[in-house]
Specification:
Number of helices of chain A: 14
Distance between the termini of chain B: 58 Å
CATH topology of chain B: Butyryl-CoA Dehydrogenase, subunit A, domain 3
Strand order of the largest sheet of chain A: 3-4-7-8-14-13-12-11
Order of helices and strands of chain B: HHHHHHHH
Distance between the termini of chain A: 102 Å
Largest sheet of chain A: 8 strands, antiparallel
CATH superfamily of chain B: PhyR, sigma-like (SL) domain
Number of strands of chain A: 14
Helix content of chain A: 40-55%
Structural class of chain A: alpha+beta
Radius of gyration of chain B: 18 Å
CATH architecture of chain B: Up-down Bundle
Number of strands of chain B: 0
Largest sheet of chain B: none
Number of helices of chain B: 8
Number of domains of chain B: 1
Helix content of chain B: over 70%
CATH class of chain B: Mainly Alpha
Oligomer: heterodimer
Radius of gyration of chain A: 31 Å
Strand content of chain A: 15-25%
Largest interface: A-B, 39 and 48 residues
Shape of chain A: elongated
Chain lengths: 392, 168
Amino acid sequence: MHGHISHADLRAYFDQELPAARQAAAEQHLAGCPDCRVRLQAVSERARSVAARMAALEPQLAEAPRPTAAVMAQFKQKHGKDKVPMFKKMLSKRPLWAGLSAVLVLAMAFSLAPVQAWASNFLGLFRVKQVQVLPIDTTQLSSLSNDSSLVKQISQLFSDSVTVTRQPGQPVVVASAAEASKAAGFDVRLLSAGQGTPRLTVEDGTAFEVVLNRQRAQALLNEAGRSDLQLPASIDGATISVDVPTGVTAAYGYCPEPAAGGSAVKPDRNVTFGRFNNCVLFAQMPSPSVNTPPDLNIAQLAEIGLQFTGMSADKAHQFSQSVDWTSTLVIPFPTNAGTYQQVSVDGVTGTLISRGVTGGQYSLIWVKNGILYGLTGDGSSTQAVALAQSIQ
Amino acid sequence: MAQSIEREAEFEAAFAEHYARVYGVLFRLLGDRAQAEDLCVETFWRLWERAPRRQENLGGWLYRVAMRLGYNALRAAHRRERYELQAGHAALELNTPPEPSRLVEQQQERAQVRAVLAGMKERDAQLLILRHSGFTYREIAEALGVAPGSVGTLLARAEEAFEQRYTP
């Protein structure tokens, strides 16, 4: 080694942090250099003195970290909780389902909130004349929903794009079907008298506008790793206005209280399976109306949305071309969430969704004379159809 | 799904590997178990939210975030303490029941060391905390984003600054 050891190297030498060769060379130099030994002495003393002060900060036994597993469990709990409200928020910002949310939420109570939020964003542009169930594989969506940064951005884009033009009020409980009809502006129907007296709730409709932002929506697709899906430039700035009329929910049996300012029931499946297992909800609402610019190609948007859920390009194209998007309420239905079938109900064709193997839950949805009906409860599909036939 | 499971497994592995150490540096900075734990969770939450692109520097990224959070909290606490002293809150503290003197001494020394760290340059304070939490020069370099060869110099300077400010 030429010349003396630098201050920095002496400090690193003290910590034995010099590269091996330099550590050895420094040692050799120190053996023959009293000056450097004195300097090393000073450096060492200061290092030891600071170390002694810093040692006071060390956690004592009672201050040691908790077991990693326990903290991890807590973290997961917190993480899980954080994820859910974000989606709930997205849903509650779009009160499209004010009246019928009970039906849909019960049918898709599991991890389906993200799916519903996503898919109904792409598929929910309609004036309902018919209902069609679309089985989708949610694997890809669930993995995306774990990317909380992406979820946040989506949620942000929603809140930036949606303007509520008519605020919904609080649900109001009324005494009779006549009163409900008057408040809602259409003839409210009930199940047959044998089913007992329902608790009737009138839920205000709402209206909102969505302004599409092509650039931000595309950025999200890109971030989700789907830059292969290109949104058409023409959608930018398109305004979609949605008007959801006032709906009425009739609750039979022992049902949970309507959640304040939100959907008709809290989608808590523990509660549903427990105390409320004889609850039947019958919801009805005139079809929401949706106005879109005439040049907005909804089928094309739907196709992109479907591909985003993981559907192949061919299938997405086929499906989106087969649907009349101006009149069909498409319910995205996770393939593993249950079964669905078409049934005859109320003189029209309805869609019956069943969940659970034995005596699970059912949701029966149909459209008649411009009114959208939903019947949901616990029990078999036969029970559902029988109940629906009793509607007066 | 496979992707998310993989990501979750990766995250859990990082948590298991780094949690105790992240807690260690944060506790040294803050001296408060609950606060250290909170910031620890915040650090990992950020990792979960936005993972660093290059996984090999995961440790460096984690400690950099933790140190930033911890140092800011230390600074804030320090300002608060000074304000409370001026406002006469110290009088209240003097009336609290006496603790065993060894504990009192330890608390006093901790407070003093932290006050010194709070007054130092951020990087110097972080350097001292990391080094005296047992980090190697390489680990320090990764966490602070400096060249490994410069750690000796920076450390020597930080120690000098510490000694100048610390009056026993």
